Amino acid sequence: MLAGCHEPGEPIKASTVQSLRAAKIPVLRVTEVFTIAGDGFLIEDLPDSLTVWITHQLADLPPQMRHELQAWIAVLRGDNPRRLARQRATIVARVHALRPFLLDQAARYDTLRQVTRRDVLNWLDGRTHRSNDACAVRDLFGTLKSQRLVFTNPSHRLHIARPHLKTPTPLDPDALRQLGHAANHNPALRVTLALGGVQALGPAQIRRVLLDDIDLPNRQIDLNGAARTLDTFTTAAITAYLAYRHDRWPHTSNHHLLLTRRSAHDHTPVSGSWLKDLFHGLPVTVGQLRIDRILDEARNTGADPLHLTAMFGLTGQTGLRYATAVHPEHIPTTN
């Protein structure tokens, strides 16, 4: 399609490739191929997606406030040689967390120079994620103060106590039955259920499992250099998925266990969003599966926090939290 509307050797604009989306063409893959083809093959004429998103988030703010925020965002993106550039996900999270605060201040002020410490404390009061929001506010005003865009830092020495972690709770048996029924018809879901619900791997660990980590003849899986025995259910789930994987992508060079139609053509792990979508419509998440498995181990081993720490790679505090969830009498007392 692209060759039909370009002369031989004529560069192709990225916006032209984007127009193929209407024909259900995987434009991201096409763009990657053209990028690899060499310099001058693809003309990048599309605006940066992060810049477009940030501009949209700040559109309702006064001009002077937007100007001040752009200085902060520039530092986050690496324009300051004294600070490392933040990852895209971190920038999105910071802007998303601060947008309600900024809109609240924009209703009274035209510039962030007018924001007081009381304004910051009033906004943080009642916020669900106060600790994270306070961190974002400190980062914003700390940067603006260093850039001399505000006279005083209203978040200076602002300390918000971290919230108490929730007590781990087991999954409902009906939810587990519903998940098991769905997994019978989905090899990827079944192997994820085994890795999360039996081996107690977290989402990031599941995504990074490699074929070389699995030793089916000896029924073992290598996790960060530590060999763990595979039970019958996990062995059967992995075996079934490997057969499905070979039939679906017989020529893939990706060494990760789990594949998608996108990752099968490169060497990256499956995305976190794909893993989350795998459980769409189900009353269970991968993280909850891991919690349920650790709680089950705690009940069956006398809630020994040292055992939980060694078996699942937990910190001492986390191991104690699971132990006390099963036996509250294990909570340490202070005089």
Description:
This protein has 3 domains: 3-43, no CATH class; 49-146, no CATH class; 173-324, Orthogonal Bundle (hpI Integrase, Chain A). 24% of the residues are buried. Helix 8 packs across helix 9. The protein is flat and about 65 Å long. 50% of the residues lie in helices and 4% in strands. The N and C termini lie far apart (77 Å). It has helices at 14-18, 27-37, 49-57, 63-76, 88-106, 117-124, 130-146, 173-183, 187-197, 203-208, 232-248, 272-277, 286-300, 305-312, 316-326, and strands at residues 12-13, 42-43, 214-215, 220-223, 226-229. The longest helix has 19 residues, at 88-106. A 3-stranded antiparallel β-sheet has the order 3-4-5, with no helix packed on it. Strand 4 (220-223) and strand 5 (226-229) form a beta hairpin. It is mainly α.
Brief characterization of the structure:
With 335 residues, the chain is mainly alpha-helical. The chain has helices at 14-18, 27-37, 49-57, 63-76, 88-106, 117-124, 130-146, 173-183, 187-197, 203-208, 232-248, 272-277, 286-300, 305-312, 316-326, and strands spanning 12-13, 42-43, 214-215, 220-223, 226-229. The chain has a three-stranded antiparallel β-sheet, with no helix packed on it. The protein has a two-stranded parallel ribbon with strand order 1-2.
Compressed to H and E, one letter per element, the order equals EHHEHHHHHHHHEEEHHHHH
CATH T-level fold name of the largest domain: hpI Integrase, Chain A
The overall pLDDT average reads 89
The H-level CATH homologous superfamily of the largest domain, spelled out, is Intergrase catalytic core
CATH class of the largest domain reads Mainly Alpha
Helix count equals 15
Distance between the termini: 77 Å
Shape field: flat
Based on secondary structure, the structural category is: mainly alpha
Q: Which bin fits the share of residues in helices?
A: 40-55%
Rg measurement, Å: 25 Å
Unreliable stretches, pLDDT < 50, 5 or more residues? none
What share of the residues does DSSP label as strand, in percent?
A: under 5%
CATH architectural group of the largest domain: Orthogonal Bundle
Largest beta-sheet details: 3 strands, antiparallel
Count the strands?
5
- Spatial sequence of strands, sheet with the most strands: 3-4-5
Number of domains: 3
